[in-house]
Specification:
InterPro entries: DALR_anticod-bd, DALRD3, tRNAsynth_Ia_anticodon-bd. One of its GO terms (molecular function) is ATP binding. This is DALR anticodon-binding domain-containing protein 3. This protein is of the alpha/beta class. It is 47% helix and 11% strand. The chain is built from 16 helices and twelve strands. Strand 5 and strand 6 form a beta hairpin.
Length: 459
């Protein structure tokens, strides 16, 4: 399994740059990868990726690794030499159209080159990967890692009273989420005994991760001594503060959970039109929503920054309730489709290979695929990119979910996904959209699972 974003970046750099002859195995310069911009809005106009055309910029980024510019490749940017430019552009497109993630066309404007992917080819490929139930295949987003990349996450040991302090609760949440992301991303998580052997220099290198709260004392591990192969990083979590006092909150974890459960109940009733029921299943749902709200509240800003508790239900419009409301929408859509199939109103969903994804030509449809399905593996990678420096980007998971739900909400309101009566000429489009919805649900649910939040069937 590969990261689609990384595939594009690497292929592009390999096309523009020549590896040093003395060191052909050297990696592509990281600065060069950083030149490649991934777009999120107005994709029909801006394209999906872009990068600068300046030779000087690319030359500077190659100094450390010894790469050289493939000058003939850069001729496609020389618009003054029209024939050479056109020939090189055609040559590039011929090659790039055969990449694993194929390029359809390019556009040059203001010294930037804009790349447009072959949308319907990419849609089919991604949806097949996401919905693949073959146990021999890796789950989408589980990227192959160097087996020598090992980590030991030393668990936080909290005193009984600390479990009720929100700042320590936040740090524990970070630790639990981090463990799930590490395991999904296929780092090798090892035991304390294994790490001890690495410290003695008996086996390969292990990264020891320690999560701590800024509300407590930082303890320094006493045995960093040669020939240790155990490297250390501490992920320090900011405190939870009260927005009224601006100081460390005195609200207990159990009180905050109860408060947010009540907020979710009121929001479900007033904003989403949910009828209050006096039964255990409804109470259990509200408790789950409350716990989800607490997780989103505490994780929505960078782990090292302080975070405010939510008072009187005044939270983000893209918070837990909104995310889970759209989770319920997805489930409801797919239930209705299955009911129509069972009732004979629709035919069975055809195999995905027979679906014409060229029918999905709405802007939101490509945005959902490119910004969230295509980008999902990169989200996992970026969460852990700076982990050796004691920095993780768990907050981007919450941002990803909020943006994902917002875009799907726009799409759901604007596009009729199911039709009331079966019309043969419209069914191919219905089937294509059902596959899209299934893939969206899969990515949403996998992302929620990192936060230990269950999807919602009804709301």
């Amino acid at each position: 399994m590969t990261n689609p974003t990384a595939v594009i970046s690497k292929n592009l750099c390999l096309y523009l740059l020549e590896k040093p002859s003395l060191f052909p195995c050297v990696e592509v310069p990281k600065n060069a990868i950083n030149f490649i911009r991934i777009h999120k809005e107005k994709l029909s106009v801006k394209g999906d990726f872009s990068f600068p055309c300046s030779l000087d910029l690319w030359k500077n980024c190659c100094k450390e690794t010894g790469h050289k510019l493939r000058l003939t490749a850069f001729d496609m940017f020389k618009e003054v030499e029209e024939d050479i430019c056109n020939n090189e552009r055609q040559k590039f497109l011929k090659i790039a159209s055969r990449w694993a993630i194929p390029i359809d066309r390019i556009r040059i404007d203001n010294e930037r080159c804009f790349l447009y992917l072959k949308r319907h080819t990419v849609m089919l490929m991604l949806l097949q990967r996401v919905l693949n139930n073959d146990k021999n295949e890796e789950c989408y987003g589980k990227l192959k890692k160097n087996p020598k990349q090992k980590v030991w996450l030393s668990g936080m040991k909290l005193a009984e009273q600390q479990h009720e302090e929100l700042s320590f609760c936040r740090a524990k949440l970070v630790e639990n989420i981090l463990l799930r992301v590490l395991e999904y991303s296929q780092w090798t998580v090892v035991t304390e005994e294994y790490a001890e052997e690495a410290r003695k220099g008996n086996i390969g290198e292990v990264l020891m991760l320690n999560v701590a709260s800024a509300a407590g004392k930082v303890t320094v591990n006493p045995f960093v001594i040669p020939p240790s192969r155990l490297s250390y990083a501490t992920i320090r979590c900011g405190i939870v503060i009260d927005p009224i006092t601006g100081k460390l909150t005195k609200l207990k974890t159990s009180e905050y959970l109860s408060c947010r459960s009540n907020d979710m109940c009121l929001m479900a009733m007033h904003k989403y039109g949910v009828r209050i029921k006096d039964d255990k299943s409804f109470s259990a749902l509200m408790s789950r929503l409350g716990a989800a709200a607490v997780t989103v509240d505490l994780m929505e800003v960078r782990h090292s920054s302080p975070v405010q508790i939510i008072r009187s239900g005044k939270g983000s419009t893209r918070g837990a309730a909104f995310i889970l409301y759209n989770s319920a929408r997805l489930e409801s859509l797919l239930r209705k489709f299955e009911e129509k199939v069972e009732n004979g109103e629709y035919g069975k969903l055809p195999p995905i290979e027979s679906i014409d994804f060229a029918l999905l030509d709405e802007d939101e449809e490509w945005q959902l695929v490119f910004n969230y399905i295509f980008a999902f593996p990169n989200l996992i990678e970026s969460c852990l990119d700076q982990i050796r420096n004691g920095v993780c980007a768990i907050h981007t998971i919450v941002r990803f979910l909020g943006d994902f739900a917002s875009l799907f909400s726009v799409y759901y309101r604007r596009i009729r996904i199911l039709i009331h009566e079966k019309r043969d000429h419209l069914m191919p489009c219905v089937y294509a959209r059902i596959y899209l919805v299934k893939a969206i649900r899969e990515i949403l649910n996998r992302t929620l699972s990192f936060l230990d939040i269950e999807p919602v069937q009804f709301m």
